[in-house]
């Protein structure tokens, strides 16, 4: 098969249970070596769709084509070969309580390959080390935290070096920080090992940061398939709840607006400004934040942003808003008649970053901070307005 042919094609898949139609002609492609996300309402049939691919459910009608071969033409042994190329990470981790972490991770190797004791142990140990589970290798799943159990499940999904991994809600039951950590783990391993990933999730917008393609399953059909950027830019009212739904407007982790809702809010402020009102924008550029995320892990960076967000929220006047324009840029915006608003924003931000603890932290993690602010000319797009404020940036730390 050419490398541009999708690895898996689902064509018009329909499935009903007891007369209740769950899938109504769902069609989607899963591209090789990409991360494909499937999102949709709870109970909408996302798991059912994926179970068709791995042969746990047979469609009432429609076809699945794997590496160019339709399932309907496949012999049993061809299908077993496909199954050996796949691995799964289930919603509840599906770890065996009676087995140690080591044994749980070793299980797929024992089931799929006939390895000698040493080879098997080497492979399991390598994954255990990579996922920082060495200290808990001889413990049982119940003795370790939920976040660690997810890491064990991920280690088990990766141990056979599969070509395709299905993740069914890999972040369920985790707090916002650990959710982000699981997604960054998947992202990191995907970059290293280059498998094809299919992720079922409710975690919008987090999934948008790692998925190449997002598919929306709605009323049994795929109503959108495309890049996260295309989804965010779409003006299709049918996609409204997925791109502008309440849960997306405020970032769960920080209480700040995400990029999309921040831009909308600034544009709304710009359009509403009248009389003696002005649009005020302050920006904080955190140079080095991206590197810090890459080298020290997201957890540390998120904790810092959360701290900053808490402080910003404590002095925001009513009606003002704050959000992350990017991983390194925080923006505060307000529509106000009060001429001292910009001064207030700047002095508060300066106070935060000149605090000794914060300053020491920034030095330690090589973060450089620039603060900017402007009374923005009305009629500018949100993007240009932010650039105007950024252009006034001065280095603080
Ligand atoms: N084997 C089955 N027999 C009967 N009904 C089933 C079966 N499998 C799934 N269903 C039903 O199909 C519907 C879709 O279930 P599915 O688990 O795919 O939803 P989902 O989109 O993954 O939801 P969630 O996001 O809440 O996990 C549910 O109403 C479920 O009860």
TrEMBL record:
| PROSITE patterns in alphabetical order | ABC_TRANSPORTER_1 (PS00211), ABC_TRANSPORTER_2 (PS50893)
Question: What name appears for this protein in its UniProt entry?
Answer: Phospholipid/cholesterol/gamma-HCH transport system ATP-binding protein
Question: Does this UniProt record's set of keywords contain Cell inner membrane?
Answer: no
Q: Does the keyword Hydrolase apply?
A: no
* Database matches in Gene3D superfamilies: 3.30.70.270, P-loop containing nucleotide triphosphate hydrolases
- Entry keyword set: ATP-binding, Nucleotide-binding, Transport
Xref: Pfam families: ABC_tran
Q: Which residues form the ABC transporter domain?
A: 8-244
Which GO MF terms are attached to this record?
A: ATP binding; ATP hydrolysis activity
């Amino acid at each position: 098969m050419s490398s541009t042919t999708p690895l898996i094609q689902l064509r018009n898949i329909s499935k009903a249970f007891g007369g209740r139609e769950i899938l109504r002609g769902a069609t989607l492609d899963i591209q090789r070596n990409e991360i494909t996300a499937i999102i949709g309402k709870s109970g909408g049939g996302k798991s059912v769709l994926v179970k068709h691919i791995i042969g746990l459910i047979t469609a009432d009608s429609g076809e699945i084509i794997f590496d160019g071969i339709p399932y309907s033409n496949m012999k049993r042994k061809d299908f077993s070969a496909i199954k050996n190329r796949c691995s799964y990470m289930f919603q509840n981790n599906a770890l065996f309580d009676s087995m140690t972490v080591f044994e749980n991770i070793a299980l797929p190797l024992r089931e799929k390959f006939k390895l000698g004791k040493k080879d098997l142990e080497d492979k399991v140990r390598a994954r255990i080390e990579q996922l920082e589970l060495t200290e808990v290798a001889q413990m049982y799943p119940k003795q370790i935290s939920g976040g660690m159990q997810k890491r064990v499940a991920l280690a088990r999904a990766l141990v056979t070096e599969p070509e395709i991994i299905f993740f069914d809600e890999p972040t369920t039951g985790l707090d916002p920080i650990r959710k982000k950590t699981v997604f960054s783990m998947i992202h990191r391993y995907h970059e290293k090992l280059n498998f094809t990933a299919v992720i079922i999730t409710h975690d919008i917008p987090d999934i948008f940061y790692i998925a190449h393609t997002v598919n929306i399953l709605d009323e049994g059909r795929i109503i959108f398939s495309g890049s996260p950027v295309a989804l965010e830019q779409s003006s299709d009212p049918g996609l409204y709840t997925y791109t502008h739904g309440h849960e997306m407007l405020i970032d769960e982790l920080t209480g700040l607006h995400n990029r999309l809702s921040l831009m909308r809010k600034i544009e709304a402020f710009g359009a509403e400004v009248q009389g003696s009102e002005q649009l005020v924008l302050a920006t904080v550029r955190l140079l080095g934040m991206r590197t810090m995320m890459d080298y020290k892990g997201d957890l540390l960076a998120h904790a810092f942003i959360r701290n900053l967000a808490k402080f910003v929220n404590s002095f925001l006047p009513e009606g003002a808003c704050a959000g992350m324009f990017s991983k390194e840029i925080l923006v505060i915006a307000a529509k106000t008649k009060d001429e001292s608003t910009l001064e207030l924003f700047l002095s508060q931000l300066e106070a935060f970053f000149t605090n000794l603890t914060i300053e020491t932290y920034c030095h330690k993690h090589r973060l450089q901070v620039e603060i900017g602010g402007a009374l923005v000319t009305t009629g500018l797009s949100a993007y240009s307005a932010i650039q105007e404020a950024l252009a006034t940036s001065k280095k603080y730390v």
